Amino acid sequence: MKATNQNGNDLQATLPKDLETKEFLEKQRKILLDLSDDITQIRDKNDLIVLFSSRIKNLFYFKHTIVTLIDPERTSYRPFLLDPMSSPIQTHPSYATLVDSDFPLSGDFIEAVLDAGKPVLYQMEDVMDLPGSPTFLRINYERGIREILMTPLKSKNETMGFLHMYTDRPGSITDEFISIIEGIAPQISSAVTNIIKNDEVREKEWMNEVLLECSIGLAAVRTREELSDAVHATLVRFNLLRGFSIRRINSDHETMTTYVYDLGVTNATEAEITEMTQGQVPIYDGLQDRVLDSSIPLQVNVDAEIRRGIASQYLFVWKSMGLKTMVGIALRNGDVTLGVLWLGIEQANLSLLQAIGSQISIALSNVLAAEEIVEREREKTFLLGFSNEVARVRTKEDLKNAVFKVLSRVVNVKLAMVNLIGDDNVTLKPFMYDRMLFENALEQFDALVAASNTIDEPIAARVLAAEDHVILKITEELENCPNNPFVQLWAQTGLKYIFAAPLRSAQADLGTLWLLTDDPKCELLQGICSQISTAIANIQANEKILAYKRMLEMENSQLKEQIKRTYNFNEIVGSGPEMQQVYDLISLVSESNSTVLITGETGTGKELIARAIHSASPRKDKLMIKVNCAALPANLIESELFGHEKGAFTGALERRIGKFELADNSTLFLDEIGEMPLEAQVKLLRVLQEKELERIGGKTTVKVNVRIITATNRDLEEEVKAGRFRSDLYYRLNVFPIHLPPLRDRRDDIIPLAHLFVDRYSKATGRKVKKISPKVLHELTSYPWPGNVRELEHLMERCVLLSTEPMIREVYLPNKNAGAETASMAMLGTLEDVERIHIIETIKRCRGKLAGRGGAAEYLGMPATTLHSKIKKLGITKRQYLAE
Ligand SMILES: Nc1ncnc2c1ncn2[C@@H]1O[C@H](COP(=O)(O)OP(=O)(O)OP(=O)(O)O)[C@@H](O)[C@H]1O
User: Fold this and answer.
1) Is 694 found in the same domain as 642?
2) Which UniProt keywords apply (predicted)?
3) How many CB atoms lie within 10 A of CB 62?
4) Helix H segments across 616-677?
5) H or E segment to which residue 800 belongs
6) Atom of ligand 1 at shortest range from CA of 600
7) How far is CA 251 from CA 258, 496, 521, in A?
8) Which residue lies with its CA nearest to atom 9 of ligand 1?
9) Which helix (H) or strand (E) is 415 found in, with range?
10) Residue 797 CA, ligand 1 centroid: distance in Å
11) Mapping DSSP to helix (H, G, I), strand (E, B) and coil, where does residue 395 land?
12) I need a surface site. Which of 71, 79, 342, 713 has the fewest CB within 10 A?
């Protein structure tokens, strides 16, 4: 196509005839000067409109003017300035679309203008239907426009846009008109450039103003809700609200979670929204990490990202929501990356977005800091509550309850296990755990709990070596030690981290704590861990105190027994050759550590001799510990001797220290050894051989240094032959035998012993009985004494009690006069005597308690008042029943 002027001449070659005339040039110069003056005044679009609508219109006729600008990519041009007053196309139905359209910078119509580099006049009919012609030509034509003068506007030798001048009167755009327009085109160009620059400055000023306004709002936010509102308001102010979300980086530094969002009107399903706003999205998915790495906002095309292979679910949700382009802005506070702001916008003013991003970063950082303060406060209160609870803990059971309670209140933290270091300082024993956490691998879990672990197990050793705690990422541990059974167990819980910490008290390792979590809140967990350490240390101290207490109680009872019997071995009576031999043996063996076996009939004084040996030995400063093997049920004898661990058998509620341990560095007197069950004999033999023992249910051995003295009234050799006593044990016990002869074989001792006992019981009961009649002495020496010294002792006690005068004149020996009724009657004594003895005995058994529950009156079946009057009537004194 060839552009022509109104006369149909070639534009390049055409010059008006009178153009060369002087007045014409003069006139033109004047017009140009006037217009140039006006143009230099132009500051904004309105000025330019006024220039066209009044100044130029006064000179020449035209209908309306438009200025279009070429886009930076130089592919299209779009309306920049419209003439609202006189434009006839304003009422056209396509006007709205037209003014917001981009017209391609190609096609004959526009290319001819570009090529000409100066005004080109077109007849509408010639150009409007040409291929590639812009739609505004036809629309103008439909509103009566017949000619268009297109003038290129240039800046730095490049066409920046076009001045369109339309007329509905053919021929009204004269050569003079064209010449003037050509003359003022450079000034109009610079006016347009100024306007653009001015607009830009104004836009920037406005932007800064709004940003400042928004920043005031954003700086004030302290809560998540306030942040959401402020971001919302900011985006509305800049007309950028098409849906946004702020994702916050989680403490695992691998995922992000939506913190605040507004999806606007969306067709996404409920499930999609929940997935996107509640779930965790990966940081390193090839998209979000790009945003975080970028120093400027990143505009992404959703489809293109999917095509690139980014498989993150949220991209598909965006797509299904109809979002085509998204802008991701990294939110940072200094060097700390906080998260990403995603905006669903098509066009991006990057510097504006960057400025908004910075403001939102500050706001987010403030909110997170405020949240952190609140969280710290909450944790403090929480820990305070826990520490109050821990202060009340006395037993391990209490602690278990407290720990489970506290952990149930910490979101997303599960107790895997608490292990305690055993007495051997090597084993790590499971103390408490949440078994149901491992419900998918219970068998494996139970096996691990049953097997004893040690402090050298690699992961446990790492934890014990740590200053405060270690956080292990389970997937990494699984890669590093795929065969570690603990790691395998943790992995099946689905939780991401194990927080493991040594439990310590005053630098001493007590055990290890293992917590499973997705979000290791170190400070809180460390706080809980310290509290548990304190509680465990308290419990252990408490247990030790209890054990000492029990030991002291036992020692106390032994001591009482010893005190009760002290006078016995000070006053061993017996001067005949039989007892002399015994004394010789005692002095021979006392100094040594040899095991002694004392034999003799019942009541011959075996225990008395055992105590005499102990008292003469280097161990005399410690208590001799006595165990009566006949007095204990077979099933308890082992525990009595060797002790047991807590839970070793039903009823073993506490750890108990056995008599062997109690007799460490002292003497253990095993009375009635012949009654010991065979099973216990085996254990006893082992302890005697190895000088160390194992508590029942215990896994460690305890070294003991104990001297053994045993006694029996049985013939052990016979017992061995009958298979009731182990021969190997017998030989071990029978190292140094001492035999005590029966009283009937040392009759010379009977009278001194009788006097000793009368004297002792008179003193004890406050009676004045001092002597024994010759008749009684005679009877005593002629009696066979099957119960030996003990029988004599008891008989003399009764005589003292029954005697009403200082001399014992009567003695009631069993079977002395068997069959003789009078004697047996005499032996029983008067009814009063019997009553007195019965009452005294009963009160003794009730440990002196007369009235009330378990008091003597209750057992005697009489009111306490009756008992009191009887005591008075029978002359019973306190000393009689409180003597022992
Ligand atoms: N030689 C003695 N001199 C003083 N008292 C003695 C003498 N022998 C025994 N006794 C006293 O006789 C009582 C019984 O003695 P002991 O309990 O020692 O006998 P035992 O042989 O151990 O008896 P059992 O076999 O029944 O255990 C004790 O009160 C003890 O003090």
Assistant:
1) yes
2) Activator, ATP-binding, DNA-binding, Nucleotide-binding, Transcription, Transcription regulation
3) 26
4) 634-642, 659-662
5) helix 788-802
6) 21
7) 14, 12, 9
8) 605
9) strand 413-421
10) 15
11) coil
12) 71
Residues 23 and 67 in one domain: yes
- Residue 554 in domain: no
DSSP string, 460-505: HHHHHHSSS-EEEEHHHHHHH-TT-HHHHHHHTT---EEEEEEEEE
Q: What are the two backbone dihedrals, phi and then psi, of residue 699, each rounded to the nearest 5 degrees?
A: -115, -5
Tokens of 814: 């069993």
**Domain boundary residue, one of 717, 741, 765:** 741
Structure tokens of 480? Answer: 């590093």
Atom of ligand 1 nearest to the CA of 607: 18
> What are phi and psi for residue 670, nearest 5 degrees?
-100, 100
Are 278 and 412 members of one domain?
no
- Return the bridge partners of 155, or none: 158
Verify that 117 and 245 share a domain, yes or no. Answer: no
Distance, CA 565 to ligand 1 centroid (Å)? 10
d(CA 816, CA 805): 23
Best of 570, 607, 673 for a ligand 1 pocket test (most atoms within 8 Å of beta carbon): 607
The reply to whether 348 and 434 lie within a common domain is: no
Ligand 1 pocket list (CB less than 6 A): 568, 571-574, 600, 602-608, 671, 711, 713, 789-790, 793
Beta strands of 52-130 (E only): which ranges?
A: 64-70, 76-82, 103-104, 120-123
Number of neighbouring beta carbons within 10 Å of residue 6: 18
Task: Identify whether 205 is part of a domain.
Answer: no
In a domain, 7, yes or no: no
Query: If the chain, 884 residues long, is cut into consecutive pieces of 10 residues, what is the mean pLDDT of each piece?
Result: 39 44 75 81 83 81 93 93 86 91 94 94 94 94 96 93 95 90 90 88 88 88 93 89 90 90 79 82 93 93 93 88 91 93 86 91 93 86 83 82 80 84 86 85 86 86 90 90 87 89 85 88 83 84 78 70 51 85 89 94 93 91 88 78 77 77 93 90 89 80 91 92 92 94 93 92 86 92 91 90 87 60 49 82 81 82 86 80 61
- Output the residue whose Cα is nearest ligand 1's atom 26: 602
Nearest to 247, CA basis, from 276, 290, 284, 220: 276
Token pair of 754 as six digits = 């009788």
- Residue 133: how many other CB atoms lie within 10 Å: 19
Ligand 1 nearest-atom number relative to CA 740: 21
As given in the structure block, the two tokens for residue 189 are: 């160009």
Q: Judge if 474 and 526 occupy the same domain.
A: yes
> Which residue has tokens 């279009």?
68
- Say whether both 716 and 580 belong to one domain: yes
- Residue 159, CB half-sphere, CA atoms under 13 Å: how many? 25
Q: Cα–chain-centroid distance for residue 181?
A: 82
Residue 4 lies in a domain: no
What is the distance in A from the centroid of ligand 1 to the CA of 594?
Answer: 22
Q: Could you give the angle at the alpha carbon of 793 between the alpha carbons of 792 and 796, nearest 5°?
A: 85
Give the pLDDT confidence score for residue 284 in this predicted structure. 94
- The pTM assigned to this predicted structure is 0.51
Expressed as residue numbers, the domain containing 246 is 220-375
Sign of CA dihedral 273, 275, 281, 285: negative
CA distances from 464 to 56, 500, 502, 512, 620 (A): 92, 9, 5, 7, 45
Alpha helices (H) in 244-295, listed in sequence order: 270-278, 288-293
Q: Are residues 433 and 486 in contact, defined by beta-carbon separation less than 8 angstroms? A: no
Closest CA to 773 of 784, 758, 761: 758
For the CA of 712, the nearest atom of ligand 1: 25
Count of domains observed in the chain: 5
**For residues 382 and 528, what is the distance between their CA atoms, to the nearest angstrom?**
9
pLDDT of residue 12: 37
Please give the structure tokens belonging to residue 622: 């410690």
How would you label 670-683 residue by residue, b for 16+ Cβ within 10 Å and e otherwise? bbbbbbbeeebbeb
Q: What is the pLDDT of residue 33?
A: 82
**Model ipTM over 0.90:** yes
